[in-house]
Design goal:
Two copies of one chain form a homodimer. With 348 residues, chain A is mainly α. Chain A has a single domain, classed as Farnesyl Diphosphate Synthase. Chain A is built from 14 helices and four strands. In chain A, the strands form two sheets. A two-stranded antiparallel sheet of chain A has the order 1-2. Chain A has a two-stranded antiparallel sheet with strand order 3-4. The two termini of chain A are 35 Å apart.
Chain lengths: 348, 348
Amino acid sequence: MIVKGRTFASRTDRLDAMNAALDRELGRLAQRVGSSQSALLTEMVQHHLGLRKAGGSRGKRLRANIALLSCEAFGRRYADAIWAAVAVELVHNFSLVFDDVQDHDELRRGRASVWKLWGVNQAINAGAALEALVTRAVIDLLPPRHVDRLRPALSLLSESMLALCRGQVLDLQFEQRVDVSVDEYLEMIGLKTAALFECAARLGGVAAGVGEASLEKAGKFGYHLGIAFQVIDDIVGVWGSTTQTGKPVGSDLKNGKKTLPTLIALKGGAAGNRRVLRSLLTRARFTAAEMETARAIIGQSNAEVVCRRQAAEHLAEARLQLFGMTERPNWAVRALAEMVTTLESSLV
Amino acid sequence: MIVKGRTFASRTDRLDAMNAALDRELGRLAQRVGSSQSALLTEMVQHHLGLRKAGGSRGKRLRANIALLSCEAFGRRYADAIWAAVAVELVHNFSLVFDDVQDHDELRRGRASVWKLWGVNQAINAGAALEALVTRAVIDLLPPRHVDRLRPALSLLSESMLALCRGQVLDLQFEQRVDVSVDEYLEMIGLKTAALFECAARLGGVAAGVGEASLEKAGKFGYHLGIAFQVIDDIVGVWGSTTQTGKPVGSDLKNGKKTLPTLIALKGGAAGNRRVLRSLLTRARFTAAEMETARAIIGQSNAEVVCRRQAAEHLAEARLQLFGMTERPNWAVRALAEMVTTLESSLV
């Protein structure tokens, strides 16, 4: 198979080429974020993005890949959507730098988090710089012939950044409450997680120059995938290992952080268990033993079953929207479908 | 005098109208930053911007006024530059929210700072939201007929946001050092303060649709005004009162924060004094007595004279650039000149 003079043996080769292009552009931007005097800014951004050493974890880059694949799904080359992929990756990463500060998470992608290495104050600067870099990336990378896409692109991106901030405000407010409803929680992750997945899929469509009806479908695909992704992340956060998450075991449970399994166990478990769990969640910080008690109580409730069902429903909806996006599914549609399948298989 | 059907008795009336327009747009954006669920985001932004109560201090809005007046100086109505004024005001304010967290400043514009009221974590969300709002504001407020100005506008704004981050990285790094040179310091305030003044003046030119040569002059005017402004702020930071600064007396001296007066006293004072001052600056935190000692040592050096001379030189350069901006100085050029004069008179 030949694309623009290059031979691709397989879908994997194409995905590798896409991610190499992404690395290149993120590397360039990281290089330019700090001036010669303020090299620390570049160092922090490179460290966080995993660009300091070959083989450093760079995260799954799901959002960036959704943007690129969405563009290809609509029949355009991913090169037209590099700006979109880089931008959503930066949005995701500025929020991670701030999240780690806010949650006191010392590990990110198996490395020390930015605040852990350079302190909270410099980490705030790194987060703010990554956020400023979002607009910079679009300006620098959008092909000049597509200048008419600047406005819709930055409108979607700034809206998704605001959604992230709103979601994070709620997430922190929920820490102080024990009466959070499942609906409130779903609205929160809609803002904190799904909005950026939605934005990524839509931006791929903007890069491909498709109309509003197609953007709408792409957006819904992204949104449902995002909700499912977060619910599965919640499941792993309670029952997963550090190898899976790159974070300490049960880190979601500490600080009274609300996740879907916890909320379901608070609502649907045995009365005695609910009382114990509620009282545990008002602690400022869990001991290891308390963490195990909380895990056991959540495990005894119907939380896991309900969470898996929720995730499965959103994945089914994502798949439906995906196949509505284009009349003729191409390799990219199949790659996006594989994302859905991979998440589904983690539910079995 | 009649402008678009409204009668302006004086320059003050025009400035008042400008600032009322600014209030209106900032108020709208603050309203929209938080969704109904995340009303806290709106509350924090409104509090910080002084929009919660009539009469709440909203800051001097120097940068926003520079953008508006620069547009008028080039012969266009300020209404064409509202987007620019709102954007630079938001850039300034996101950095203030983060600065207050980083410096543990409990007071801002005579009110409790955002982190003091809502905690560091929520303050980070407020700062991130204000930063995201910069791009949003330009997209929402730029007149559709000026869509070709979107790219240069956002290019300047994102660059000035990155400059702010770089400057803040340096400012914090300088806290850990006693060997900061005056040149390094001037580069730092160039990034942390003057870059946004420069951006504001340039954006006014972009809003007026003038060419690069004019933008260059406007930029230099802004830059020199910004450096002078910061140096004067440093002078007030050492010798001023809380009434003048809205911050606790000597707050710049604590935490080993480097300012121009301190650096000059460290270099040019009597040997014994320099030793004492250097050792004071390595403390984690000053007592009231130590603060007085530091102030006295800086007062005995030639710092105040040198600072005043530096500020005066930059103000003279700003005035020169200002009168090169247009052939025929109008009311806005005179208003900008008055900014220079006001700063000059604070030096006498």
